[in-house]
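Hi everyone,

Forwarding the result from last night's run.
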Amino acid sequence: MTTPSFILELRRHIGHAPLWLMGITAVVVRSDGKLLLARRADTAQWALVYGIIEPTEQPADTACREVKEETGITVKATSLIAVTSSDRMLTYANGDQAQYMDHEFLCTPVSHTEGLKQPGTPDHENTDSGWFDPNNLPSNLATSTVQRLALYRQWKQQGSAAALFVTHGQENITSH
């Protein structure tokens, strides 16, 4: 994932100190139920589209922007699936520390034509992208994608009426 310029600026002042960051995950589903995934250039794993919310940006707008930047597909955010946070501070190879609050959104292509479009890799964060049957996903899914798809499935099973909120770890998931 490319580091946003506002984070690079913060890092100039605070070094590797922990940052609490807000992020999004976009679960993009076509009318036929296929999911949009991208193969990450940094890990070679298949993943849902995710990214960091920029200052003054609304989370749902971030989801739509990230999908467009990473796959070329234009989407609209239709529902909030879940709000979760990572359970620990992550330390990157360069020493930077961060913890994330994630806003998981259901998104749909803005038109039938967009849904039929073959996704691309316009920003080079990914090496490939495509539409996948949810019952036949690639074997090398990112761990975060496995977890977020589980939340999506639970949200659907509960009737999609309310977002899920994780409390005290993944074992206690409630809808509100």
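The radius of gyration is 16 Å.

Cheers,
N.
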